[in-house]
Design brief:
This protein is an alpha+beta fold. It folds into two domains: about 35-65 and about 180-265, no CATH class; about 70-180, Elongation Factor Tu (Ef-tu), domain 3 (Beta Barrel). It is built from three helices and twelve strands; from the N terminus they run αβββαβββββαββββ. The strands form two sheets. It has a six-stranded antiparallel barrel with strand order 2-3-6-5-4-7. The chain is elongated. The relative contact order is 0.18.
């Protein structure tokens, strides 16, 4: 009799608590989906804001975004006293106006006295870039305006190029880049993967898949899984506004989906 009464009570009580428990589980799952999407977009956005001006490019599928990541930058000296940047020389050193950021330990950049011009493209040394507009003759990916970094201190920079820099910067700006970074949304694998360490490639169509990126020397790190849809789009900057990158991803689990969108404003001042 006691067992029967206990069973009846359990059935009655179970009907009252089953739905709240299921609701709690559903809410927890949705919160997890939101967290995955929000953290993924935020991590991408933070790094994309470090992009070299006018280096962001999105492939034709809208699922790969690539950019050159800057680790430092400042203004170069064009008039004495001091060591000025010689735009007629292949190899030169020049003084920095002010202090070059990110030189304090553990600094993101370091000298490479034995660097040769091709090391920038190969990714074996950091690159010095001046006046990147992304256009013909001033395109980082074509190495028009990039040099291999040889000497770097808080007050001076030395570089090596095969030919002199083609264009000066109206604002005397220069950037130090540690190489290209790509985020690839793979719907087949349901993931977003960050790739870095690959060679500088003129055509993005040659590095817009996991196989091509790893073949070019990139190392991939999983950023998020459970991705069921995604799209990236980029509006290049103009003379009156910066560039705008729009990121959209959808995360799914057990039949539920959460879609988030985030826009990243990026500098286009070379």
């Amino acid at each position: 009799m006691v067992i029967m009464i206990t069973g009846i009570i359990a059935v009655v009580v179970g009907r009252f608590i089953a739905q709240p428990i299921q609701g709690f589980m559903d809410l927890s799952r949705r919160a997890q989906l939101v967290d995955v999407a929000a953290i993924t977009l935020e991590r991408m956005s933070r790094e994309i804001r470090l992009a070299l001006p006018n280096s962001i490019r999105v492939d034709g599928t809208g699922r790969v975004v690539e950019f050159a990541r800057t680790v430092s930058g400042a203004r170069y000296r064009t008039a004495g006293p001091g060591d000025v940047l010689d735009f007629s020389a292949n190899t030169d050193t020049f003084d920095v106006l002010g202090v070059l950021p990110n030189m304090a330990p553990p600094g993101l950049i370091a000298s490479n006295l034995g660097a040769v011009p091709g090391d920038c493209a190969a990714g074996t040394t950091d690159c010095l870039v001046i006046y990147n507009t992304g256009q013909v003759g001033a395109n980082f990916y074509a190495l028009d305006n990039a040099a291999a970094l040889q000497i770097v201190t808080a007050a001076s920079v030395g570089f090596a190029r095969a030919t002199p820099f083609p264009l000066t910067s109206p604002g005397q700006r220069f950037y130090i880049v540690d190489g290209p970074v790509a985020y690839l949304c793979d719907l087949g694998a349901g993931s977003v993967v960050r790739y870095a360490g690959h060679t500088v490639t003129a055509l993005q169509s040659n590095v817009d898949s996991a196989a091509e990126l790893t073949g070019a020397g990139a190392t991939g790190r999983l950023l998020a899984d459970g991705i069921s849809a995604c799209s990236f789009s980029y509006q290049a900057g103009t003379a009156t506004r910066g560039g705008l990158l729009t990121l959209r991803i959808t995360v799914s689990n057990q039949g539920e989906k959460v879609a988030l969108m985030q826009q990243v404003h990026v500098s286009n001042v070379p």
